Amino acid sequence: MFAFVSSITPGPNNIMLTSSGIWFGFRRSIPHMLGITIGFGVLLAICAAGIGALVMAVPAAQFALRVAGSGYLLYLAWQLRDMTFDGQAEEARQPMGFMAAAAFQFCNPKAWVMAITGSSAFLPQGMPVPLAITLYCLIFCAVNLPCISVWTGAGALLRRYLSQPLWRKVFCAVMVALTVYSALAMWW
Asked: How far apart are CA 176 and CA 172, in angstroms?
């Protein structure tokens, strides 16, 4: 349940995937989704091994995570402010790739909170630690991928409605507001 609730609720990854679904469709967003899931799985393993608690105990590391995460989200909000569907401009755009999405997990404060909280509360007991970490990461990732796929699919479905200028402007305003909120929420 923790994996489901933390994966399906809005956050930086889900906002980015909704946007990717709109811009590029579901199929072209698959590397982005897989990068999030695999990158988050690596982050889970690191946190379950105890390194996450050590990183979070260093104030400079927390600050760096917040700066990097909120900076990227503000950049993304800037990109979302005026969504137009021009065929030539779309061909020049590229979806976030696997490696970039995986690397983003390490500057995503929501991912760190999910990984540290989940690792400290739900790591299987009564088995060798490497096996417990592997099992925990596999289960969490198996729940995470379908959850984030819902957001990408929603974006892909919304695309057809966003051809109308009014709905596109409303949607852009909502997405920018949610993205800016996510960037600011990292500082609370």
From this structure: 6
Give residue for tokens 């065929």.
Answer: 87
Q: Identify the sign of the CA torsion 60, 65, 68, 74.
A: negative
pLDDT digits (tens, 9 = 90+) for 111-163: 888 888 888 788 888 889 899 999 999 999 999 999 999 999 999 998 888 87
Phi–psi pair at 125, nearest 5 degrees: -100, 165
The three-point CA angle 14-185-39 to 5° equals 40
User: Could you give the angle at which helices 30-48 and 12-28 cross, rounded to 10 degrees?
Assistant: 140
Write down the residue that tokens 């105990």 correspond to.
57
CB distance 117 to 5 below 8 Å: no
Range with lowest mean pLDDT among 54-58, 60-64, 87-91: 87-91
Round to whole Å and give the CA distance between 33 and 40: 11
Domain boundaries, the chain: 11-185
What's the token pair of residue 54? Answer: 């050590």
pTM of the model: 0.79
Q: Which among 117, 2, 15 has a CA at the least distance from the CA of 72?
A: 15
SS3 state at 173: helix
